[in-house]
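Help: why these numbers?

___
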Amino acid sequence: MYTPDIYQLENPNSIRAFLKENAFGILINQTNGKLWATHIPMELDYNSEGKEILHGHLSKENPQGIAFEDNTEVLAVFTGPHAYISSSWYDHENVPTWNYTAVHVYGKVKIIHGEAVIDSLTKLVDKYEQASACPVKVSELSKATMRQAKGVIGFEIEITQIEATQKMSQNRDDHNYKNIIQELAKTQSPSAIAVAEEMKKLRK
């Protein structure tokens, strides 16, 4: 991923916090000579050997899983809130641009089986059921319902490289930076407002 130095996100804690908060990504690999991409949640974790991984699952009907058997390299792409930045918000002439955060995770994928799949599903459900009034628990699902787990391929991606870009108008002076935040807040777009809030954190 091409990233100018000024926009490189290098803080490991910030990157990992981002991955945990924006775990719905795009898994990309090459299967049968073609590029394939699937939109799925992939959770950051550690395996039994203490190595950092992403874990997830996809349908056995998905051809993308065929290549997993060869422990091939994959790319997982994650993005956060993003917003159009109008150059009319500057105090000088310039071109419009886009603010965003993106993380690319590279690694070797392997298929997991049995209890490892159930453990992965349990962690996923527990994370997203926290705010539910009546949380669903995998351990409490019936045997009939859990048979659906046989229809998925569980996988782990052992991470080999992470690239991260955080483009949040870092190249602007304080006056224009603050004005961008104010204009984003006026848009009433949840994504634009989220970008404005992130910009506030970066420059106080």
